[in-house]
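Meet our chain:
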Amino acid sequence: MKTILTLVLIFSATMVLQAQNTIEVSISGFTNDKGKAMIGLYNSENDFLENEYKYATPAILNKQSKVSFTGIPDGVYAISVFHDEDDDNEFDMFMGFIPREDYGNSNNVPPRFGPPEWSDAKFEVRGGEIKTIEIKIL
């Protein structure tokens, strides 16, 4: 019984001591306060821009928006955001490849021909860190 109790305590301590991080995202440069910000947090290259690990849809106020992702395990992540100005929950494109809505990414990846690369947008969080990401909408 004593052995079982010891193992339960060790397991519980391991769970409590595992670092949980916070990612605070501040977005600026919206052209207006219409619609909402669509923010995706991604935790793998394979899912980048396809399947969010977590997401948020905060309002835009004074052409800015903020959100905090809490309880994030240690790891590598990337963020993508777009201004859903027409509130249809979709990133609108002209002819399938020209963005109609403003967007941005972690590390403020500059626009190129096509979407940003994971390698350019990724960042790491570790050890109970509070990471602040500032994104300028393009």
Notes: The chain has two helices and ten strands. The beta strands are 20-28, 36-42, 54-56, 64-73, 75-84, 93-94, 98-99, 103-105, 123-125, 130-136.
